[in-house]
Design a protein that fits this description.
Largest sheet: 3 strands, antiparallel
CATH topology of the largest domain: Ribonuclease iii, N-terminal Endonuclease Domain, Chain A
CATH architecture of the largest domain: Orthogonal Bundle
Number of helices: 10
Strand content: 5-15%
CATH class of the largest domain: Mainly Alpha
Oligomer: single chain
Radius of gyration: 23 Å
């Protein structure tokens, strides 16, 4: 099979058992055309990798964000292990270039298919875990996902404040909060928005932020902290 030295350099990981790395890259279509291949396809590794990714992300969220509720952590973790998110991360390390595909899958654009890329990333995570242990796997996952985690946690918190406020107001007053921009200052590349949230005729809170969403989230947070 192919020399995977370049991929290992990109991953910053040197495998002790290179057969595990090879197996992580083998699509089932390749096995159908090469039935004698000793390693087998990557589907069992994909199963394990899904669990390992979920654990590492959950552990990091639990330790880094003690203020997050169970619901907040669940939403962020879910957003990070979705197929489209894993596909983007696989593309970032050009994992598709290294897949072993059958001729039909290759001809059908298999190197760019989200299912193939996300599955290969899960399988690769499992291969690293089996070969190098949890500490190395954790370092790899968090390095790969750091930007996505920062974005997801920010969005998760924003959505959660607004969701909580809406649930409370609908239960107490049968009304839905409404958000209104009351000020937008600064140049287009560095604008700051101020938003107020109203429930009926009452202003429940005001908040500012660099985007409408973050300003709305801050207004909702202020409203939730009102006595």
């Amino acid at each position: 099979m192919a020399d995977l030295t370049a991929l290992q350099k990109k991953l910053r990981i040197r495998f002790k058992n290179k057969a595990l790395l090879e197996q992580a890259l083998v699509h089932s279509s390749y096995i159908n055309e090469n039935p004698g291949l000793a390693t087998g396809d990557n589907e069992r590794l994909e199963f394990l990798g899904d669990a390992v990714l979920g654990f590492i992300i959950a552990d990091e969220l639990y330790k880094r964000f003690p203020q997050f509720s169970e619901g907040e952590m669940t939403r962020v973790r879910s957003s990070m292990v979705r197929q489209d998110a894993l596909c983007r991360m696989a593309k970032a390390i050009k994992l598709g270039d290294h897949l072993y595909l059958g001729k039909g899958e290759e001809g059908g654009g298999g190197r760019g298919k989200p299912a193939n890329l996300s599955g290969a990333l899960e399988a690769l995570t499992a291969a690293i875990f089996l070969d190098r242990g949890l500490a190395v796997t954790r370092k790899f996952v968090l390095r790969l996902m750091s930007r996505k985690m920062g974005k997801a946690t920010s969005q998760g918190v924003e959505a959660d404040y607004k969701t909580k406020l809406q649930e409370i107001m609908q239960a107490k007053r049968q009304l839905k909060p409404k958000y209104r921009i009351i000020e937008a200052v600064g140049p287009a590349h560095d604008r700051r928005f101020t938003v107020e949230v109203r429930v009926g005729d009452s202003v429940m809170g005001r908040g500012s932020g660099k985007s409408k969403k973050s300003a709305e989230a801050e207004a909702a947070r202020v409203a939730l902290n009102q006595p």
